[in-house]
Design brief:
Immunoglobulin-like; 3 domains; elongated; mainly beta; five-stranded antiparallel β-sheet; five-stranded mixed β-sheet
Amino acid sequence: MRLKNILIITAFLFIPVTFASAQLPGIDLAVLNISPQTPGPNQTVTATLSSSATDINRADISWSVNGVTVSSGKGLKTFKFQVGSLGTQTTLEVMLVSSEGTPWTQSLTFNPAGVTLLAEAQSYTPPFYRGKAYFSYQGRANITAVPYFIDQNGKQIPPEQLVFKWKEGTQNMTDESGLGKNILNYRGSIPIRAKTISVEVTSLDQRYVANASMDITPVQPKTALYEDNPEYGILYNKALANQLNLNASEITVTAVPYFFNASTPDDSNLKYDWNLNGNPVSNGRSSIVLHNPGGGGGQAILSLQLSNTIDYFQFADASLNIAFGQAARNLFGL
């Protein structure tokens, strides 16, 4: 009699433990992870199942795309598929039956969209310059988000109907974000280092989502010296480098800034400090006139430090070795 009582009590205590382990509140049987989370058009997506409530390697798992079963079997916890093109809809469904017999299912719908970031540095480059303007220290740039959002009717969703959320690194740019704000007026900060600019674009109904990011790496501004010819103007096709043989009676040397925050070489924020053989030459302008005094020959070193009086990290140096005629007077005829 005593033995029967013990057996009954043991069974009574054991049964509720098994039931509770499958019914713990707040714990889902499985977790579905997607990478990337917001896939673009025609992009391959990896779906992965994980679970802390059951041994997922023993579970029966079935994967379906747009209602068609593509893969099924035990322990198939990873599945790859491709979303459709712009304007299409792709539905992923996963069904799981644990080894304990507990069913679980989840579905996700993807409406692919895309966005491209275009950056245009707002820095000075001279006429006929064939390269692009670079983003310099403390530079400025216009970054434009170009969205590709096509609804199910095949119509383009304009930027005015999309919400743009901008970030610098992990920092939200709240003032620059909002409805229709697809252009970011960005200015480099201190300390000087590369920054990642990202944007998340969503439709008003949040059905369409796209993300993009780009790295902004600042460069040091530069300056180059050119001859300002009285007949042809500034000879941008050939910079004065290393050594200049001053055979003419005089020559005008012009300094041209590259990638400074300036609208023209004579911008009021730019400061030109000329030196001859280490001695300051009072000028302050972007051009300087060199005279050949004739007579005895000689050499001189012309140097320039160009700086931005507002954005202090923008500065550049240039120098030129000058060989001139037969004179011992000052090269500038002073």
